């Protein structure tokens, strides 16, 4: 969080730079089947974010040492394409993408019924093609849609969204400027049917009151995103 | 890459088909899959393109950086092409450092573009010995159903042709289109069932033998050749595909020109 208080991001009418109300998400579109050779795939376009996820498997886990006798292993990779940001990203893993891959895997492991596929592996590949703040949320959302599109049994979908604070106002679904210059960022991974959580991070500075508002914004946004995801999965090309 | 399980059966099937001059997906020997080419599809890239040929889908993005010219070439900027086939693109592409296959892909695409001289590195110089543009072309596979070579080359040159030099962002004048004087295009031929076919699918690659990649410039000049994989070919066979490549590369060039003019 930059915390530059002098960057004006909320106008006198209480609207944000892109015209949204504080509780409003950027436009979201979800589509399935975008990687034809994969067993399941999804694309999430969310503001300028353009993220695809592909699922391969369940397949044999090799080498054998990675096999688990009682369940499948979920192999998740989050990566940003070199041309996805203003400054080119050098190919290869970095600490940020490793951490996001790890927390994403742990979020998805909580819902995928891995015990149905002992000794096998399910690969989840998340690729950010264009980034505009909130790529980890878009990635988790795309991955859960891709798993569902692949027909892999899950106890619930996962919808991820972040709220935060800019110029002292709690806002939902931060855009790039709000993320860069805002005061806080609270991404959550929510199970839309039960309202439970499988992913949570936060950085910045939020009072207990603001924290509760941000939490509630995320919950409301999750049910909105869930509707879009359900529509894509039901009416998709699958 | 994991060892494919099906090749022997697939090989035999492809050879049987070839006897009646057929291909596994019903195409003619020198018939390409339908190609769609779009430019300007990546908002964060200064130039971009998406190519789809059947179920093969690739993206290309151009980024610019400032560099200090190399001491032995103080008046030149730089051009770099990099190809990545990440495991998103298919079951057979595994995570880890770039495989020899993906390095070959990047280098063959790079040579076709570089050797055509379509980008004049002298024009990329801003202040001799001090500052110059480095043009970086990244090609990226979304879905590999065969013949990534041609898809990468096509997306690559289309992305360069659509690129805008972001001078304003670097506070050195106004943005301007990257000068690209030629449009090199690539055609790849795989030996499948004993004879060469154009634009092999993944199945044909798996059950086929060697491949030959030909990059030709606007005037039909040859800019890059590559023979890949184990196999033997004759002068007559090469002459036949070269003759076809001259025609096909020029059709691909028209495709790029049309996409840019749109």
Please explain how this structure is put together:
The complex is a heterodimer of chains A (238) and B (262). The model of chain A has no long low-confidence stretch (mean pLDDT 94). Helix content of chain A is 27%, strand content 29%. Chain A is of the alpha+beta class and 238 residues long. Chain A is globular. The longest helix of chain A is centred in the last third of the chain and has 28 residues, at 208-235. Chain A is built from 4 helices and 10 strands; from the N terminus they run ββββαβαββαβββα. Chain A has helices at residues 95-109, 135-149, 176-181, 208-235, and strands at residues 28-32, 40-46, 49-60, 73-80, 120-130, 159-166, 169-172, 184-190, 197-200, 203-204. Chain B is α+β, with helices and mostly antiparallel strands. Chain B has helices spanning 7-19, 100-115, 148-161, 202-206, 235-261, and strands at 35-39, 47-53, 56-67, 78-84, 125-127, 131-143, 164-165, 176-177, 185-192, 195-198, 211-216, 222-228. In chain B, the strands form 3 sheets. In chain B, strands 1, 2, 3, 4, 5 and 6 form a 6-stranded mixed beta sheet that branches. The longest helix of chain B is centred in the last third of the chain and has 27 residues, at 235-261. The chains are: A alpha+beta (238), B alpha+beta (262).
């Amino acid at each position: 969080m930059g915390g530059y208080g002098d960057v004006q991001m909320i106008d006198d009418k209480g609207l944000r730079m892109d015209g949204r109300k504080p509780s409003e998400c950027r436009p979201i579109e979800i589509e399935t089947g975008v990687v034809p050779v994969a067993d399941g795939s999804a694309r999430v376009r969310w503001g300028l974010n353009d993220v695809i996820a592909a699922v391969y498997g369940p397949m044999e886990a090799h080498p054998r040492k990675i096999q688990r006798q009682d369940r499948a292993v979920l192999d998740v990779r989050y990566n940003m394409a070199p041309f996805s940001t203003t400054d080119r990203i050098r190919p290869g893993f970095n600490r940020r993408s490793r951490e996001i891959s790890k927390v994403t895997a742990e979020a998805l492991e909580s819902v995928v019924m891995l015990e149905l596929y002992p000794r096998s592996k399910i690969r989840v590949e998340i690729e950010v093609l264009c980034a505009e703040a909130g790529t980890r949320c878009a990635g988790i959302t795309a991955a859960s849609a891709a798993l569902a599109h692949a027909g892999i049994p899950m106890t619930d979908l996962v919808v991820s969204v972040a709220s935060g604070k800019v110029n002292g106002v709690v806002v939902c679904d931060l855009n790039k400027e709000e993320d860069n210059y805002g005061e806080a960022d609270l991404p959550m991974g929510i199970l839309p049917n039960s309202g439970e959580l499988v992913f949570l991070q936060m950085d910045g500075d939020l009072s207990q009151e603001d924290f509760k508002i941000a939490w509630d914004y995320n919950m409301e946004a999750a049910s909105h995103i869930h509707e879009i995801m359900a529509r894509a999965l039901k009416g998709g090309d699958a | 890459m994991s060892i494919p399980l099906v090749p022997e059966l697939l090989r035999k099937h492809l050879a049987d088909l070839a006897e009646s001059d057929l291909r596994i997906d019903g195409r003619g020997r020198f018939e390409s899959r339908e190609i769609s080419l779009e430019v300007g599809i990546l908002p964060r890239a200064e130039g971009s393109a998406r190519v789809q040929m059947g179920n093969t889908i690739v993206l290309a993005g151009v980024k610019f950086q400032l560099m200090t010219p190399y001491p032995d070439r103080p008046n030149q900027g730089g051009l770099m092409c990099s190809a990545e086939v990440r495991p998103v693109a298919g079951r057979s592409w595994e995570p880890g450092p770039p495989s020899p296959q993906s390095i070959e892909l990047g280098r063959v695409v790079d040579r076709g573009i570089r050797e055509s001289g379509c980008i004049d590195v002298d024009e990329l110089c801003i202040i001799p010995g001090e500052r110059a543009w480095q043009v970086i072309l990244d090609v990226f596979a979304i879905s590999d159903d065969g013949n990534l070579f041609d898809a990468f080359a096509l997306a690559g040159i289309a992305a360069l042709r659509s690129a805008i030099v972001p001078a304003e962002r670097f506070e050195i004048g106004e943005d301007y289109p990257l000068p690209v004087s030629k449009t090199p295009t690539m055609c790849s031929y795989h030996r499948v069932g004993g004879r060469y076919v154009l634009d092999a699918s993944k199945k044909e690659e798996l059950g086929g033998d060697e491949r030959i990649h030909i990059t030709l410039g606007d005037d039909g000049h040859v800019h890059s050749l590559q023979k890949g994989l184990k196999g033997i070919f004759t002068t007559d066979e090469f002459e036949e595909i070269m003759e076809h490549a001259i025609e096909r590369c020029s059709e691909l060039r028209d495709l790029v020109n049309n996409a840019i003019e749109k």
